[in-house]
Amino acid sequence: IKPDEPFPTPILCHSRLNEFIPPPECPVFEPSWEEFADPFAYINKIRPIAEKTGICKVRPPPEWQPPFACDVDRLKFTPRIQRLNELEAQTRVKLNFLDQIAKFWELQGCTLKIPHVERKILDLYQLNKLVNEEGGFDAVCRERRWTKISVKMGFAPGKAIGSHLRTHYERILYPYNLFQTGANLPKATLTNDTKDKEYTPHDLPQRQSVQPQETCSIARRAKRMRSEVSCFKSEPGEICENRPNLRRRMGTFVTKSEPGKNNDTTDQHVDQYMCLVCGSGSAEDRLLLCDGCDDSYHIFCLIPPLHDVPKGDWRCPKCLAQECGKPPVAFGFEQASRSYTLQAFGDMADSFKSDYFNMPVHMVPTELVEKEFWRLVSTIEEDVTVEYGADIASKEFGSGFPVRNGHFEVSPEDEHYLTSGWNLNNMPVLDASVLTHVTADICGMKLPWLYVGMCFSSFCWHIEDHWSYSINYLHWGEPKTWYGAPGYAAEHLESVMKKLAPELFESQPDLLHQLVTIMNPNTLMNNGVPIYRTNQCAGEFVITFPRAYHSGFNQGFNFAEAVNFCTMDWMPIGRNCVGHYRQLSRYCVFSHDEMVCNMACKADTMDVDLASVVNKEMTAMVEEEEELRDKVKKMVISTSDYEVLPDEERQCSKCRTTCYLSSITCPCSPGKMVLSLPHPQSVLLSTQQPYTPVSLHYKFTLDELYPMMASVKQRAESYKEWVRNVQDILENKESKKRGLEELHSLVEQAELHSFPPPNLVDQLRAVAFEADKVAVMAQQLLNGKRQTRYRSGGGKSQSQNELTVEELRSFVRQLDTLPCNIRQAPLLKDLLSRVDDFQRRSEKLLSDDSPSPQELQDLLDVSLGLDVELPQLPLLRERLEQARWLEAVQQASSRPDDLCLDTMRRLIDQGVGLAPHSSVERAMARLQELLTVSEQWEERVLSLMEARPYHSIETLDAALQEVDNIPAYLPNCLELKDIVAKAKKWLQEAEALQLGGRIPVLDSLSELVLRAESIPVWLDPLSRLEALISDVQMWKESAAKTFLLKNSTISLLEVNGHIMQCVDSNLKKEKKLHKSIKKASTKLESLCDVERALSESKDSASAMTTLAEVRQREMEMLLALRASNESKLLPAENCCALSVCVCQKAPSGAMVQCELCREVFHCGCVATTVELEYGQAWLCPLCQCSRKPPLDKVLPLLASLQRIRVRLPEGDALRFLIERTVRWQHRVQQACTEGVLEKVSKMVSGNIMFANNSGPPYFNDITQMLDELLVEGFLLQVTLPETEQLYRYLLYKLAHLPSHSAPTDEDQHPQQTQRGSPHHVKVAIIMMTAVACNICLILFLSFFSNFQVNWVQCDGSCNQWFHQICVGLSAERAEKEDYICISCTQPDYDRGE
């Protein structure tokens, strides 16, 4: 909408009854980045349009997306409870009226039930109102206006609805209205139709006076009209069950005992109670006792008399008038009984909305939510309760916008949001906002408030404090629907709401200031109030303007933030608001006078336009203060300065206004009664004396206020003086010509004080800019800097030109036309004189035949300080180039070591481009001759180096002697000299390598041969060394065929360390074991370390030491791996969680176990053991890394290596392997000699079993020694008969242990357990593993084979299951006999032990 277009006035078109019609949309603005940069300038730009609607919406540029910075983890709030139909003004009036009717009938012992008419709930409030407007019940009956009333209530005429309305009115409302007139009631009973529905009172005063319970239901949709039969009946003959003994007849009444009296008897005489009407105590069966005050009445003495004693509760006329005449309590929101986190509130909100509309929250149309909201707030039949997290202090939990020094870490690309004017933490305190002069941090005004909404949660009609602006930003979530009225319609809106709901304003005059009441926008529009709406989506701002009433509700779960701000146009509005607050006796949020005085104290830096506004405010304030102080001058007996008191202690007792400039107090009650100066008569009324002295307290004396007002006025008028000075400069009066500094001073004043109008400032800037250019150019000329002008050359190319001497003279003359003086003008004439001197010197120097390069350069240096075009410069530069070239040739010839071919060619090329000269031609001839000789020798030397076969070292030496006489730097000749030196050095090393019968190391030989390949000289010992390396390679191939498996990927040296590498990779899965191994050894961590250590060893002894360390580490790692793998097989709660085999899956089916690493494998994942003979150990693929040849095949390899006489790491490893094998054989023989095996065999045959390895120490030591001996035998990469013999011996002696249980399936099926079968070998290995690990054998077999397990259940008290073989039962005994476990027979038995 353009600013000059009038905004359309909303017109409400009538549609179907009670259907909500959305008001017209408010304006929506989408600023550009340039407009968005200054928020207050943009708001001032759109204000002419937006203030006509009261509210507007601003969509920031799409790229403006500030991060959400609120501390979600700390945010915990207690929301407000909102019952929707209690918010709407007219609906609340109806509910209050129905509550009064229900209370009236409840005191009469009856329950109010609202009847149905034409299938609709009868509107008793409207019926009562229309009857009163028509003159009352008697007048309507007399003039037969019931049909007219039925038509006004929306019923169709001609259906005899009027008679029904009369019946309901006479039955329900007429007794209440008759009571209101002060007359006694007729028969106080209420007969209800069975179709009428019970009304449940809201009890607003009682509910708001107590804290809500923790189990308060939230957002529950319930019907207010209940069809169930009331628990409190009013029909004759029935007794109320839930209120016993409330209706009492005097004949059976028992009095209450009074304190201090001895009541021996409970029966009292009836004649002690007298009827208050007739004064008699007779007819006790007709005497009633009031349940409120215990007064007694005869039923026939009441007016009109009662025919029967009423049932239930009964109140006398006096109590009835007292109960129904209580004043209403001010309405307000309740706090919820629980606190929410943001996530918990969001879950509740989304669940409520999806359940209410029976669809996902994002699919509910906004139009549907809007219509349903206004339907719910206007009905008395349905109660919908929601919660709203409103007015949450951002100072406590953090703003949604990022702030400096906050908990939220802002990324570098988002740092500009910290200082953005649209950041709601910054907007109230920007320079353009007058709220920055309010010293206090006011929550909600200067500090943003946070709002967490849910579907239907609403904010009621209100205007901002002090009629200020407000801005609301929706960070995220579902939309927020707004309604607004322009500021000029504020009083009209207030009058309409007071007219339509006068009952609310009678009890609460400041109702609209409490933010607890809404009214349907359609109702307001029907009464002439212009209303506009909008839907605020996430990432959008909504701005409300001064005194613009606004309200709305949330479409769902969202998070918004709002704050107030005030611009200079608000200042007079704010002062009028304070006067309005004074009339309403409402407290001020801050002192308007204090803000004006704070602004006046900063008059020197105040904006000029703001100073003009503050000047008016200051003048009005001081004049009013003068007048008021003059009025109370006669009453004042003492004066004193204000103490530093907070605002709440300086509020007027009469009008509640904050007293800032001055106040009066009565001496009789100092400090208790503070009055502002407009209320001195209140002191007289309080003391009831014609003259009462008072004390005057003031913040400033009038003598202090006058200078403050004068400084603001001076600031406002300083602009006029500035305008006069600018006009004098622009007129360029010769007599008033000023300096450039004064011109800049005026520009700085305009920028500093933001002087209007912009066009005058622009003219001043243009003049200053032109003068600056002239001054800069003059200064550059004086400083000797080059000034460049770019003139278009007719295309993309641009030519650089300097000022000519004539242009310089013209530039000096231009200074006289400037409107100001520049200080460089006197110096420019001196520049012109220096140019003339340069021209004279250059002519003299050019006339010389052999000028000096230094003199030429000095003259050219002088020209650099003359920023003008000089015609002598090209000739001077040409002569300078010739002189410098000759000097360079002379310097190069004096240093032959640096005179390379490229330098000679470059000098020749440079000389060709010079102007002809005799000295230049002679130098060119000498250079050309030297270049020719040098190139010839470079080619000859290159051919010597590239010749095949290579030349001898003597031939190359002879050529080098001839090159030494050439005075130049020749790279090929130097390279040849380096090659000859390398060849001589290589020959010396080759002779020293085998000097004295040394055995060379393979790496040294290989390195020497490799170096020889890069020396292009014939070397005699090279062929012999190459043959020696070829023999070593053939030996390595033979050793690889002997040891390595087919298609093996490991090297010969890695055979010894491969087990260590495999163990290390497996141990990494067990972090604790891997760390312990790492701590134990810090060297030789990998095969690379081993190979490097062997290569660096000086002799075979050090190599053997290194390999011994490798062997020690290998054993440590393998033993740790075996322990780790065996520990996995211990009984566990969840055996399926084990990861075994190369596939890392749980055990299943037939399994086989490696004898070296003790890992268990599926038979299908590895090579099966069917081909193995009984007694032959099986090793997994990771442990079987070589062929393991017999020892007799390994020994010839060592002998052939000794004949070659070359030392290599593989040879050292082979030598260590043979020595290790011999030592192991010796240990085995020693064990057999000492009888260790026989001792173990005797222990096993004697059935010596020790659980958990807890046997005698000597047994554990022997078994550990044998285990390590067998492991080391498996580690040897050769095949030995002792290894197989030791393994078979242990297998035969330890595999079949005596059974301690009943006969097993093995006894029944001997043919399946023959010794020679492979299956028996696997089972034997598994049995050994189970016994060693203390695992239930049957459970172990169930994991690693298809072994079937039979179970038996305890017939005792535990009902546990056991393996039959574990408890020593056969299948036949388990079928025939009861089995009771040891835990049931011996309660003290611990199975774990």
UniProtKB/TrEMBL annotation:
Residues 26-67 form the JmjN domain. Its EC number is 1.14.11.67. The chain crosses the membrane at residues 1323-1344. Residues 206-215 have a biased composition (Polar residues). One of its GO terms (molecular function) is histone H3K4me/H3K4me2/H3K4me3 demethylase activity. InterPro entries: ARID_dom, ARID_dom_sf, JmjC_dom, JmjN, KDM5_C-hel, KDM5B_ARID, KDM5B_PHD1, Lys_sp_deMease-like_dom. Its cofactor is Fe(2+). This is [histone H3]-trimethyl-L-lysine(4) demethylase.
